[in-house]
Amino acid sequence: MTHSNPNSIRRYWLQTMLKIAEPVYKSLSQQKFKQDFPSKSVKSAGSPYRFLEALGRSFSGLSPWLELTQVEGKEKKLQAYWQSLVKVSIGNAVSPNSPDYMEFKEGQQPLVDAAFLAHGLLRSWNQIWCKLDPEIQGYVVDAMKDTRTRKPYSNNWLLFSGIIEAFLCKAGCSDWDPRRIDYALRQHEQWYLGDGCYGDGPDFHWDYYNSYVIMPMLIDILEADPRIFDLWQDFYGPTLKRFKRQTKIQERLIAPDGTFPPIGRSICYRSGAFQLLAQGALKSHLDESLTPSRVRSALTAMLQKVFDSKTTFDKDGWLTLGLYGEQTNLAEGYINKGSVYLCLCAFLPLGLPSSAPFWSGPVSDWTSKQIWEGRNIAKDQAYSE
């Protein structure tokens, strides 16, 4: 791949995304998922939730590309194949008689990954949700409502309940619960710490949870449906300004060689650490100082570095645990081979057509590369309200 050819860069992104996702959807579409899914990992190898984790997280990343209508040639045929594959897979995951029926009713973890599934459906509304069979849609709604029996922890988990209710609202459910959205938004407003950063609960954490969960879900809850926006529009302006500040910070975190600080928990989510920057590019929510093509260059360098290791995938093509290849000591006890598919949320800009500035713009070095080559560029400044 050459950095000077935008078409080859897009092909690299697409090939990498589908290589990561293929074992999940090939197996699930054939109703062999629970049979094929690797069970050997770390402490949570036998977690009954690993199947929903893999589906919800991978789909959340794939969904903007599945929603894209401005696709041509070979990519259009490939997209049509994957749209079909994903719809069958979702049906197999939520149909009670399917051998791959997934757990939504018991335990805390299904609340998390039902939320990622809901997030993916919001991101691919017309091409996936609206084209699911009505019976499957009913099963999905039932599964989402099943998670209501779980009380979210007082941290980023509030947004899992919130985005599920945002999905139910957009799906036309008369019993969607605005209180869950209201509580999530108001608590996070209380947890705002400054310079575009939220606490994960009342405390600050040096990690990537503002990008893994908090800011992408805050924005997408508020943008999910006009009824939601109308009720909480006062939150939108400040949230968007904070989001844009964080895109500037995230772009600067990517070093000239594509590496980034391996800090905080859940670092095995790999490229998922940059979901916020990817979503900023997808939705034109980047800081005004950033050009889309500069963000493309930064994210491409990061993706190439992260997925360059020969031990990123096992012999059957499933993701291993680690940041750069297989590094099981980096995995917390709650991490399993389903969890790490959150890495696909870095591929959100594939939901932009190839003609968009993100893909068609000229090659542009990202900030850290410019600085460490000695260029005299503008200084950074904190954001205040």
Could you characterize what this model shows?
The chain has 385 residues and is an all-alpha fold. The chain is 51% helix and 1% strand. The protein has a single domain (6-35, 48-371), classed as Alpha/alpha barrel (Glycosyltransferase), CATH 1.50.10. Strands 1-2 form a two-stranded antiparallel ribbon. 49% of the residues are buried.
Considering the chains and any ligands shown, give keywords for the structure:
385 residues; mainly alpha; Glycosyltransferase; two-stranded antiparallel ribbon; 14 helices; 2 strands
- Label the overall shape: globular
Count of helices?
A: 14
Overall tally of structural domains? 1
| CATH class annotation | Mainly Alpha
Strand order of the largest sheet: 1-2
CATH topology-level name: Glycosyltransferase
Largest sheet: 2 strands, antiparallel
List the helices and strands and how they pair.
Layout: H1 6-29, H2 33-36, H3 50-67, H4 73-94, H5 109-123, H6 134-146, H7 157-170, H8 178-190, E1 192-194, E2 197-198, H9 209-222, H10 226-253, H11 275-282, H12 292-306, H13 357-360, H14 367-371
Antiparallel strand pairs: 1-2
Helix pairs in contact: 1-3, 1-4, 3-4, 3-5, 5-7, 7-8, 7-9, 9-10, 9-11
Give a brief outline of the structure.
The chain has 385 residues and is mostly helical.
